[in-house]
Amino acid sequence: MGKISEFIKNHKRDIILFLLIFIISSLSFGLGYLVNREFNHAPIVIEKCADFVSEP
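^ thats the sequence. predicted structure below, dont judge the formating
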């Protein structure tokens, strides 16, 4: 248990920086996903296809 607490004391700044980057990136991904779901438009439907075959 002493090694873990010593590691945390020695790398406290790096751990906090990693956690902040992880939290910010997770929030931005989640918000982007939610925004995309709200503005999802209806798919394009092709009702009639043009006939490109020439008749003899």
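Helices lie at 2-10, 12-38.
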